[in-house]
Amino acid sequence: MNDIMNAAFIVALLSAALRLSVPILFAALGGMFSERSGVVNIGLEGIMLTGAFAGVVGSYFTGSQWLGALVAMLSGIALAALFALITVKVQINQIVSGIAINLLAVGLTSFFFRALFGITTTPITVNAFSPVSLPGLSTLPFVGEVLFSQTALVYIAFLLVPVSWFILYKTSWGLSIRTVGEHPTAADTVGIPVNRVRTLCVLASGALAGLGGAFLSLGQFNMFVDNMISGRGFIAVAAVIFGRWNPKGILIASLIFGVADALQIRLQTAGIGIPYQFLLMFPYLLTVVALTGIVGKTVAPKALGKAYAK
Amino acid sequence: MDPILRMTGISKYFGTFAANEGVDFDVLPGEIHALLGENGAGKSTLMNVLYGLYRPDKGEIWFDGQTRHFASSRDAILTGIGMIHQHFMLVPVHTVLENIIMGMGKEKGFLVKEAQLEKEVLEIAARYGMEINPRALVSELSVGEQQRVEIVKALFRGTKLLIMDEPTAVLTPQETEELFKTLRRMSDEGMSIILITHKLNEVMSVSNRVTVLRDGKVTNTVMTRDSSEYELTRFMIGRELSPACREGRCCGDKLVLELDHVTCEGEMGNHTLENVSLSVCAGEILGIAGVDGNGQKELAEIVVGLRALKSGRIFLSGEEIAGKSILEIIGKGIGYIPEDRHKRGLVLDFTIGENLILKDYNKKPFTKGGLFDFGKIHGHADDMIKKYSIKTSAAGRESEARKLSGGNQQKIVVAREVDKGPKLLIAVQPTRGVDIGATEFIHKQILKAKENGTAVLLISTELSEINQLSDRIAVVYKGQIMGEIPHEAFEESLIGLMMAGMTYEKAMAANRGTGQGTKASEFLADGHVPAQNAEPTKEQVNA
Amino acid sequence: APKAEPAAPAEPAPGAETPAEEAPKIVLILPGPINDQGWNATAYEGLKLVEKDLGVTMEYVESVQQADFESTFRDYGEKGYDLVFAHGTQFFDAAKAIGPQYPDTFFMVINSEEGVEPNVGGIGIREWEGGYVAGTLAAMNTTSKQMGAIGSFPFPVIEGTLDAFEAAAIAVDPAIKVTKTYVNSWDDIQKGKETALAMIEAGSDLVFCSANQVGLGSIDAAKTKGVKAIGYISPQNEVAPGTVISSVTYNTPGLFKVAVQDFLDGKLTATGKSLGWADGVLDVQWTDGVTDEMKATIETTIQDLKDGKIENPYVPGD
Amino acid sequence: MSALDKRIKDAFLKPGARRWSVYSLLVPIVSVLLALVLGSVLLLFIGINPLEAYWYLIFSNFSNTYNVAEVLVKATPIALTGLAFTFAFRTGLFNIGGEGQMFAGAMAAVFVGLKTGHLPPFVTIGLCLAAAIVAGGIWGFIPGVLKGVFGSSEIIVTIMFNYVAVYLLSFLVDKPLREAAGFYPQTDMIGENAFLPFLIQNTRLHIGLVVAIILSILVYVVLWKTPLGFRLRAVGYNPDGAEYAGINIRRNMILAMVISGALAGVAGFTEINGIHHRMMDNFSRNVGFDGIAASLLGGATPGGVFVSSILLGMLQTGASAMQRGVGVPANIVSIIQALIIILVLAGNMMRPKLEMRLKVKRQEREEREEREARKESQGHQEGGIDA
Ligand SMILES: Nc1ncnc2c1ncn2[C@@H]1O[C@H](COP(=O)(O)OP(=O)(O)OP(=O)(O)O)[C@@H](O)[C@H]1O
Ligand SMILES: Nc1ncnc2c1ncn2[C@@H]1O[C@H](COP(=O)(O)OP(=O)(O)OP(=O)(O)O)[C@@H](O)[C@H]1O
Ligand SMILES: [Mg+2]
Ligand SMILES: [Mg+2]
Known about the structure:
The complex is a heterotetramer. Chain A is mainly α. Chain A is 70% helix and 1% strand. By secondary structure, chain B is α/β, with parallel strands linked by helices. Chain B folds into 2 domains: 5-90 and 158-234, P-loop containing nucleotide triphosphate hydrolases (Rossmann fold), CATH 3.40.50.300; 255-490, P-loop containing nucleotide triphosphate hydrolases (Rossmann fold, 3-Layer(aba) Sandwich). Helix content of chain B is 36%, strand content 24%. Chain B is built from 21 helices and 22 strands. In chain B, the strands form 5 sheets. In chain B, strands 6-7-8-3-9-10 form a 6-stranded mixed β-sheet, sandwiched between helices. In chain B, strands 16-19-20-13-21-22 form a 6-stranded mixed β-sheet, with helices on both faces. A 4-stranded antiparallel β-sheet of chain B has the order 2-1-4-5, with helices on one face. Chain B is globular. Chain D is mainly alpha-helical. One adenosine-5'-triphosphate (ATP) is lined by residues 14, 17, 19, 37, 39-45, 405-406, 435 of chain B.
C-alpha cells in the first residue's frame, strides 16, 4: 500500500477522478434543471447513450468532433422531447417513463448503429476531442496536468457549473424554474407557463446528458460501443440528489463519485485483498450514506415528480 | 359610471356538473364588491374564470371596455387583474422579493436586478401603508405578513381589479381591520376589489355592493347599504339562520382536562408553549383566543399526544396522560377536530365511509376476526351521513372525501369526533373557511356535546366564535396564557390587547384608560405586526 | 448423429446436391448482440464464412437470456433443426437437459469441453493458448517488468487466459510481475480505459485485455500513456498503430467452418473438442514493431503449443 | 424531510379503483396496436414483413402447451415483483428495488436449497421459501428504516440496493458459493428435493404460479379488507392524517417495505427452485423492473398486475419467437417493448378524459332527445287543441 500513497499517485487519482466525474457532471447538471422544475428524469442513462452514439455519427459524417457534439446534444434533446411529451403533457408516471426511455435508447442506438455501420469486429473510429493545454496554467506543478490539460469538453463541463448557478439564481428563467418546481400552482397564477417551463427544462437535461454521452464517445474515445454508458446515467440521478439540487453540490457530488470510482479501480489493480465486487458496490453505498442525511439534510423541490394538470 | 368589469352569461362545467351557470356580474371602478355564497356555490370557480385559470364554457368577459379572452392568468395579469387566492400562492422557500417578482421576466428583464426591484417593491408597499421586508423568506412570515406580500405582488403588476378569495379566513380581527384599511385606501385610489368572504359583518362594513351566488347562479346583486345581514343570509341559504346559543355552564366541578405548567419546545429549541396551566370541566367550553401561530396548534397536539412536552403534566380525569401514545390517548375518550382538515383530519383519498372510521377501524363493530365487517362500516357511514346531513355526490358513502366541499369535509370530521360522545373534545378552528350554514350546524354540534357533558377545549382565532360558544376564555400569546376571563366579561378590545401580548391586568388598565378601546386598536395598527414579531415595548404599553 | 448420415454420401460441393435434398437447417444461438465487436461478432462472422465457403445458410438469434436457453433449444428441436450452435459454455446445462428430447437435432456448444451422447457436442478454442502466446510476446516488450492483464469476468476461460498470459511472461523472465484485474463488464469501455491507466500509472508498460469492447478502452489508455498493448481476439493493430505491437486473434469463424464441415461429412461426435494453434483457429498479426528475433521466439512457442509441450497453467477455483 | 417521496407519491396515489368499462380493455388493445404499427416502420426498414413478425409475436404463444406454459413461467416472477411494487405503492412508497430484493431472495433460497436439499421436499421447499421471504424482507427493511429514520428517499436507496445485491450475488457465485468443480461462477445445483413440482408434464411450468396467484389474492385481501391494509393505505395517502388517527407512521412504512421486499424475495425463490435450480451471475435480469411496469400497467391492483404480467410474459416469449421466426434483431424487440409500455400507460392516462368526453356527449344527446320528445308531445297537444 505504501508505494501507491505518494504524490504521483494522488495526482493520477485526481486526474482519473476528474475524467470519471465529467460525464456524470454533465448529465447531473441536466438532471438538476429537470428536477428543479419538478420532473424526475431517470431516462438520463438512455439519453447519454443516445448522445454517445449520435456524437460519433455526427463526427463520422461531418468529420468534426464539434459538430458531433452538437448532433449529440440535438439527439439528446429529441429523446428528451419524447420524455417531456409523455411525462409533462400526457403525464405518465415519470419513473416508468424514464425506464422505458432507457429501454428505447438501448434499442434505437443499437438499431441505427447497425443500420449505418453494419456489423464489424473492429470499431469505427471518428475524429474526437484531444486535450487542450491551457497556456501557462498547464505547466503548474501537479494541478497543472490534472486540471489544465484536458479536452475542451472538460472545461465546458466545469464552466457549466457557475453558468447553471447563475441561470438558476440570478435570472428570471431561474426564478421561474425554481417556482415551477416548488409550487406550480403559484407559478401558474403569476402567468408562468408551468408545463412549458418543465418541457424546456427536460429538453435542457436532454442536451446536457447528450453532451455527457458525447464526452464518453468523443472526449474519452473516438468510437461508440453498445451500452457504453454502463450505469453512469443512474449515478448522475444520484448525484443530483446527493448534490442537493444545486450546481455547487452537484459538482462536489460528481467529483466524489469520480474519486470513489477511480479509487475503486486503483485499489483493485493494486491487488488488495477485498473482493472486487465490494469495491464495485462502494459508490452505491456511498450514495445511500449520503441519503441518510449524515452529510446534511436534502430538501427536494416540493413538486418533484408531480405532474401539473390544471 | 361604466363598470370596469362585466361578466355576462358565464357558464363553467366540470364534466356535466355546472359550477357556474349564466352568471352576470359587474364591478365598478373604485368599488369594493363582495361575493357571497355557500361552500361550493361557485365563487372560486367564477373568479378562476375571470383570472384566466379556467376557460368559460359560455359567456363573455368585458374588462376596461373591451371583450377579453384570457388564455392564461398571464393575460389577466397583463390587462390589470390581480388575484389573491384562498390558499396563498407563495413559494415558502423563496424570499419575499422573489415571490413578488416571479413570472415578470418579460417586464423586468432577464437578469434579476435585486437592488432596483427591492426599491420599487418598497415604494409600492409604502404607498398603501404596508410594511414588508423583501429579503425575508416567506416561510418565516406570519399569515398576515404573507397576505401583505400577496397584495404587494398584485399591486406590483399594476392591478386595477383585485380579487381576494376569503382573505380574512385566517386573519385575526386586528389583521382584518388593517387589511380593510388597506383595501379602502386602494379603492380611494380608484382600484376595484372583489371580496369573497363567509363573514357577513365584514361584508357590511367594507363593501359597496354585494352579489350572492347559489348553486352556480346569481341570486341577487344589491347595494350593501340597502341590505342587511339578515337579508343576505336568506339570499344565500334560502332560509333564516338560527344561530347556536350558548346556555349557562352546566357543571363546574367535574374536572376533565388539566394542564399543569406545561412547556413544549419547537424545532428550533424555542418554547412554543411555556408554563401553561389550564383546566376544563365536564359540560364546559373553554375558549382559547389568540393570534394564529401563538401556540394553539401545539396546545392541541400536546394533549392528544401528537407532540411531546418538555416539562409539566397533563391529566385527563385525574389520570396522567403525558407521554402516552396517541392511540392510548384516543382510547381514553378524546375527540379532536384538528386545525387543518386536509392535512390532519381526513385522508382525502379515502371514501367518506373510511374517513368516518379513521380512528376506530381497528375496533369491534367494524372489525371481525382480523377482517373488516363491511356491513357495519357501511351502515355506520349511512347513519352518519344522514345524522350530520353530509352532502355527498351520487356515490354516497363511497365518494372520496376529496370531492366534497370544505364544509362537508368538515362535517365528516365533526361527525367522527363528536358522535362517540367523547369525554373531552378539542376543536381547533372548527369553522375555518366554512359557510354560515355549515358553521351554524357545527356550532350546534359542539354545544350539543357540551350539553351531554363533554368538556370542550375550543381554540379559535375567530373572536365571534369564541364569544358565541365559550363559558370561559383564555388568551394565548407566544405560548403563554395571558389571562382568563369568564364569558360575561368578554369584551373584544380587551381580548384584542391580550392577544397582542398584554397580561390581563395591563390590558384591563389600558382598555379602561382609553375608553372604548379605540386607542388599543391604534396601538396595534402602529405596531403593524401584532403577532410574534413585534413585541410591544414598555413605552407603548404604558402610553 | 442425425441428418449427417443422409448428407454424408452427397458431395458437399454446391450444385452437386440433388434438388430433392433438403438444405440442412442450422441455427446459431448467441448470448449477446452481434455487434459487440467481440465474442458474438466473431460468431456472426463465422456464420458468414460458413455461408460463403460452404454454401450453407445459417440462421441466428442474438441476446438470448439465460432463462430462455431451454425454451430456445426446444423451439429449434420442435422445428426439426439439424444443427444448433450455442455460443458459449453457459449453454451446456440447457443442452444437456433438452438434448435427449430431440435426438434428431445436434446441439453444439461452443467452448464446451464435454459432450453428452448421443447429440450434444462441444467445440472450442483453447483460449489459454492465445493468452500464452500474448504473454510471451508481451514479456519481450516490457522494460519495467510490470504488465497489466484485464479480464471481463472471472470465468474459467478468461481466468485461464490471464493465467496463461502470466505464466508465459514469467517463463520468459521470472522477474516480470503481472497485475490481473476483472472489470465485471464486457462493454464498459471507460472502465477498461481507467483500469489500464491505473495499471500503467502503477508501473506497467504493457496492457493486455480479454473482455470484448473493454479491450478498446485499455488500448486507448496505452496510447494516451505512450506504452504498449497487445491486440486480442480481433485484429486490433489498426486501432492504435504504434501502440498495439501485434494482435493475437481467434479464428472463431474457422471453428464454425470446421464444425459445419464435420456435420456435412457426418463426422460430428458427441464429445468435447478443443482446438488450438495446431488446428489453425489461433493466429498472430504482426506489426513492424516486432523484431525478427521476437518473431522467432513466438514461432517456437507456437510450435511448442502445437506439439503439446506446454501445460495449461490454469487451476480452476483459485 | 421526505418531501421528495411525498410529492412523487402524491402524484401517483390518485385513487386507482376505477370502475370497469369496455375502455379498460379497448384502450390498451389500441395502444398495443399503435406500438406495433410504429415498430413496423423499423421492421419494414430492414426488410422484414411486419405481419409475419407480429404473427409470431402474438400467436406463437398459443401454438402448443409448452409455449403457453412458457408464458406463465415468465409471468410468475413478474407478477410477484409486480405485487411487491404494488404493495409498497399502495402504501405510498415507491419501491424500485424489486430487482435487488428478488436477488436477495434468490441468494437465500439457493443457500438453503444447497444445505437442506436432501430433506423431504415439503421441508426443504418450505425452508427455501421462508429464507427467501426473510432475505427479501431484509432487503426492503433497510431502505424502509433509512426512510423512516432519516427520511432518505426510498426510491434512490432501493435503486442503489439493486446494484449492491447484484454485486453481492456476483461475489457469492465467484467465491463462497462457487460450484464444487470450481469451474464456472455459479453455484452447484440445489438438492432435487428442493425443486418445485411441475404443474404440467414436459413444461417448465412449476408450482410457483400457484404461489403467485395465492399471494395476489392475499395482497388484495390485506390491502382492502383488513385493518392492517387500512392502516398502511392511510399512511400512504396522508401520513399526517394517519398519525393523527394514532397510526405509527414509521413502523407502518417499514412494515410496508418489509412486506414488499418479501414479495419480491418470493420471486427469487420461484426462479431458483422452480427454473434455474442453481444461481449464476445475471440470471433473471430485469424481472424487478418488469414488475414495476406490470404494476403500473395493471393500475396497481393485484388482479391488474396478474393480467399485465401475463401480457408482458407473452411479449417476451413472443419476442423471442419473432426473433427466431423471422430474424427480427433483439434491438427492435426492446424498442417495441418500450413503445408498448409507453403507449399503454399513455392510453390509461387518456382513458378518463375519453370516457368523460363520451359521457358528456351521451348526456347531451339524451337531453336533446328528451327536449325534442317533449317538444313533440307539446306539439301533439297543441295540435290536439287546434284540431
Ligand atoms: N376542478 C374541479 N373539478 C370538478 N369539480 C370542481 C372543480 N372545482 C370545483 N368544483 C366543484 O364546483 C363547485 C363550485 O366550487 P367553487 O370552488 O367555485 O366553490 P366556492 O363557492 O368557492 O366554495 P367555498 O366557499 O368552499 O370556497 C363545487 O361543487 C366543487 O365541488
Ligand atoms: N378536482 C376536484 N374535483 C372535485 N371537487 C373539487 C376538485 N377540486 C376542488 N374541488 C372542490 O372545490 C371546492 C372549492 O375548493 P376550494 O379550494 O375553494 O376549497 P374549499 O372547499 O373552500 O376548502 P377549504 O376551505 O377547506 O380549503 C371544494 O369543495 C373542493 O373540494
Ligand atoms: Mg372557494
Ligand atoms: Mg372555502
